[in-house]
Amino acid sequence: GDSVTQMEGPVTLSEEAFLTINCTYTATGYPSLFWYVQYPGEGLQLLLKATKADDKGSNKGFEATYRKETTSFHLEKGSVQVSDSAVYFCALSEGSGGYNKLIFGAGTRLAVHP
Amino acid sequence: GAVVSQHPSRVICKSGTSVKIECRSLDFQATTMFWYRQFPKQSLMLMATSNEGSKATYEQGVEKDKFLINHASLTLSTLTVTSAHPEDSSFYICSARAATGEKANTQYFGPGTRLTVL
Hints:
- With 114 residues, chain A is mainly beta.
- Chain A is 0% helix and 52% strand.
- In chain B, the strands form 2 sheets. In chain B, strands 2, 4, 5, 6, 9, 10 and 11 form a 7-stranded mixed beta sheet that branches.
């Protein structure tokens, strides 16, 4: 079945460092791809998404490009802040007909130090 | 962005009692709502998908008689954990999705409910 693989964390960076969190997927169709962020004790917030190949999702300085040829959707940010410390989940949406299920990766914890 | 609320945010109950968790979409009509369970430092596991006015579809391994889901309106879904036991302690998160419009292809998540069963 469909699946999502994320790089293992934790990722520890200094403030203003460059961030990359790798995400690859396996899917039989043409899924939509998402990055969600979860702050401590909270639910998930949609960070960005891309619905077709070569689309770039971006939000709050984060961006990710839907690469069909490498089945990847890596998350990047040029300069991280302490407030970016959270768990990041890559996900794909499978299925059709309005009943799409989300398949999540294991999550990558990011810790940014001043 | 869309707003989805959950109530309560935290609940502690005794073993053997039942607990109801509400999930509401506040600014759109959610024809589909999803219930997830998240164990500490792990990813979300889909428990069931509920569609307004019909029975929920449960994932393999999820007991439908233990986790009762009702989606009676386009803005409200409830999850009832019946005869709760300590192993049911977890973080329960709902999400909502619209049938049409801009919000149709994205799940919007609630803030989660922390259930502790003593």
